[in-house]
Amino acid sequence: MKIRLASSYGFCYGVKRAIKIAEEHPSSATYGPLIHNKDEINRLREHFNIGLVESFEEAEQVDSIVIRTHGIPKEEYRQLKAEGKEIINATCPYVTTPQQIVEKMSQEGYSIVIFGDRNHPEIKGVVSYADDPRDAFVVLEESELEELPLKSKVAIVAQTTRKPADFMKIVNALVLRVKEVRVFNTICNATFENQDAAAELAREADVMIVIGGKHSSNTKQLHSICKNYCNDSYLVENESELDPAWFRGKELCGVSAGASTPDWIVQNVIDRIREINRIEKELAD
């Protein structure tokens, strides 16, 4: 069985930047998981003494705070700064962009539509930048637009890890309903590249392994895309989750990884697949 990596996979610019920032501030604490990858979070804790606080109340007890790649709500950031905390902002620049757009467009009187998951920390942060949160609406489906009390002019942004085709469905529905629609494509380029590369490989592969955190939005999107083209597509966080049965009778194994997955985990997974392949060959002989 051959193993082939997608032409684009793994750590994006924003994640690389956040890891570097965290490593430069040992003995600090991140507000929320810095990225959606438990193994990398554990590495930062073990080698750099980077702690983790999960709530604003916990963050108030820490002197040096690293803001996660997904950002935090505007008011929480302002309050922590007012309390004299050392704020190390590792928010991904691609996440900062929709925050700034929402702030500016809401100040100009636009209703705000945000395409994404309302429970995701990135979206919670983006919504908080609207002048009036009651005029900022988070949707995932076209049908959710029907009952919204939108103004005659609307600005729309997207969660950075969503599928462009799904975003355009929301945009098209808005254009048919609202007089003026300002569209801001805030989906990350790295997301495009990883998704396109995964789809291309999944079309050829007999089995696809997507590596990343189970809570990572972009990793789940990659897995969903791979499933469209290769039914035997599996999402794993590390090599311990691989099942030898997945690879029996397969000729090409494709491998992709989410934007929060470091190369060392990818290599561990590939090494384990090779080991499984070797053992299966020996048993066959």
Q: What's the quick description here?
A:
With 285 residues, the protein is of the alpha/beta class. The chain is built from ten helices and twelve strands.
Write the layout of secondary structure elements.
Layout: E1 2-5, H1 13-23, E2 29-31, H2 38-48, E3 51-53, H3 56-59, E4 64-67, H4 74-82, E5 86-89, H5 93-107, E6 111-115, H6 121-127, E7 136-139, E8 153-158, H7 164-177, E9 180-183, H8 189-202, E10 207-211, H9 217-229, E11 233-236, E12 252-257, H10 263-284
Parallel strand pairs: 1-12, 2-3, 2-4, 4-5, 6-7, 6-8, 8-9, 10-11, 10-12
Description:
The protein has helices at 13-23, 38-48, 56-59, 74-82, 93-107, 121-127, 164-177, 189-202, 217-229, 263-284; strands spanning 2-5, 29-31, 51-53, 64-67, 86-89, 111-115, 136-139, 153-158, 180-183, 207-211, 233-236, 252-257. It has 285 residues and is of the alpha/beta class. The protein folds into three domains: 2-9 and 189-284, 4-hydroxy-3-methylbut-2-enyl diphosphate reductase, catalytic domain (Cobalt-precorrin-4 Transmethylase, domain 1, 3-Layer(aba) Sandwich), CATH 3.40.1010.20; 13-92, Rossmann fold (3-Layer(aba) Sandwich), CATH 3.40.50; 94-183, 4-hydroxy-3-methylbut-2-enyl diphosphate reductase, catalytic domain (Cobalt-precorrin-4 Transmethylase, domain 1). The strands form three sheets. Strands 1-12-10-11 form a four-stranded parallel beta sheet, with helices on both faces. A four-stranded parallel beta sheet has the order 3-2-4-5. A four-stranded parallel beta sheet has the order 7-6-8-9, sandwiched between helices. α2 (38-48) links the parallel β2 (29-31) and β3. α5 (93-107) packs parallel to α6 (121-127) and α8 packs parallel to α9 (217-229). The radius of gyration is 21 Å and the shape is flat. The two termini are 15 Å apart.
